[in-house]
Design goal:
This is STAS/SEC14 domain-containing protein. It comes from Hymenobacter rigui. The chain has helices at 35-52, 72-85, 99-112, 124-142, and strands at residues 2-6, 12-19, 24-32, 56-65, 90-94, 117-121. It is an alpha/beta fold. It has one domain (2-142): Transcription Regulator spoIIAA (2-Layer Sandwich), CATH 3.30.750.24. The protein has a six-stranded mixed beta sheet with strand order 1-2-3-4-5-6, with helices on both faces. Helix 3 links the parallel strand 5 (90-94) and strand 6 (117-121).
Length: 145
């Protein structure tokens, strides 16, 4: 299950997929993101989340240019409650290079608060490792270990 979103120039700005082998939703955001593209992409991510009820998400912003902070209020008020209702519990976010992308991610992190566990990473490998650790801990808890 996946979605691909294109801007008005036909360029992909988001590829989102339920990565079944890793049991997480992977979002690959790219390029300059308008507020409208962020909202449209987030709704596509939410669709996959609602269908899978997956507790783990990996947001990869390494190829994002600029800031998407203008969408954070909508994400906080509209998207987060729906994502929580669909089962999201862990969100690993690989920040975009540059101060604007990092500032947007830090602002979102503050807005998330205690809603779900969110960590910011500079490296994809570190984000993947953190999600696997959370999955292992959840599995051990479920087994009563």
């Amino acid at each position: 299950m996946h979605h691909e979103f294109n801007n008005t120039f036909g360029e992909v700005y988001l590829f989102t997929v339920f990565d079944q082998p890793n049991n997480w939703i992977y979002n690959d955001w790219q390029g300059l993101l308008s507020p409208g593209s962020v909202l449209e992409g987030c709704m596509g991510v939410l669709d996959i989340l609602q269908r899978t009820q997956c507790a783990y998400m990996l947001n990869d912003n390494r190829r994002v240019l600029g800031s998407w902070q203008q969408a954070n209020e909508w994400i906080e008020q509209e998207w987060i409650p729906k994502a929580l209702a669909a089962g999201l519990r862990y969100h690993a976010h690989v920040v975009a290079p540059g101060v604007f992308g990092q500032a947007a991610a830090e602002d979102m992190h503050l807005r998330v608060g205690n809603s779900f566990h969110m960590r910011l990473f500079e490296q994809l490998d570190d984000a993947q490792t953190w999600l696997r650790e959370k999955q292992l801990a959840d599995h051990q808890t479920a087994l009563g270990e």
